[in-house]
Amino acid sequence: MGLAVWAGYTGSVPVLVAAYIVYWFGDMADGQAARRMNQETRLGAVFDIVCDRASTMVVAAAFLRIDPDSTPAIGIFLFQFCVVDTMLSLSFLAFDIVSPNYFYRVDRSIYRMNWTHPAKALNNSLVVLLCLADLVWPAALAALVVLGVKVWSIARLLVATRGASSRGELTPAGDRTLVP
């Protein structure tokens, strides 16, 4: 986050790009390390989700200071990621899984659209890359598409859990996975 603050202070695009790269690679590395060392925990997953949002907000603030014209795209992205995706990502807590990385056990379609490596890369970097290329309106459209995917995912999850709950398949003490 220090690089992002420095980028915002100096108005340096190369430092901003470096801040994004450090954030993205650091986020990937901590998750990989936890999985490889078999040290994943639900608390760690929540901490990761919260830290991702904090890091994203700091880097986005620097981006907006450097390029205020990116506000429409970055604003939509921030709402999508910091509000809607936060709720979706934290929904793993309702199931017997360690983190969103195991959401395929709950719903394979939601998992594919949100937590596979390609989905994570597109969800978190496409808008930034388009804005860096000065393609603000395509970036805003991309952010709206990702927002649509997140809303669809939440709606699908709500319908599935409501159905499972009415059939007695979803109980606070029971197995809460929806995939047969």
Short note summarizing the structure:
It comes from Pedococcus bigeumensis. This is CDP-alcohol phosphatidyltransferase family protein. The protein has one domain (2-166).
| Low-pLDDT residue spans | 171-177
Order of helices and strands: HHHHHHH
Question: What is the strand tally?
Answer: 0
Report on the biggest sheet. Answer: none
Q: What's the gyration radius in Å? A: 17 Å
Decide which structural class fits the backbone. mainly alpha
Write down the domain tally.
1
Proportion of residues in helical segments: over 70%
Distance between the termini: 42 Å
Number of discrete helical segments: 7
**Coarse morphology:** globular
Mean pLDDT: 89
Strand residue content: under 5%
Ordered list of secondary-structure elements with their pairings:
Blueprint lengths: L1 H9 L2 H24 L5 H25 L4 H20 L17 H7 L2 H16 L3 H31 L14
Helix pairs in contact: 1-2, 1-3, 2-3, 3-4, 4-6, 4-7, 5-7, 6-7
Q: How would you explain this protein's 3D organization?
A:
GO terms for molecular function: phosphotransferase activity, for other substituted phosphate groups. The chain crosses the membrane at residues 6-25, 76-104, 125-149. By secondary structure, the protein is an all-alpha fold. It is 73% helix and 0% strand. It contains seven helices and no strands. It has helices spanning 2-10, 13-36, 42-66, 71-90, 108-114, 117-132, 136-166. 26% of the residues are buried.
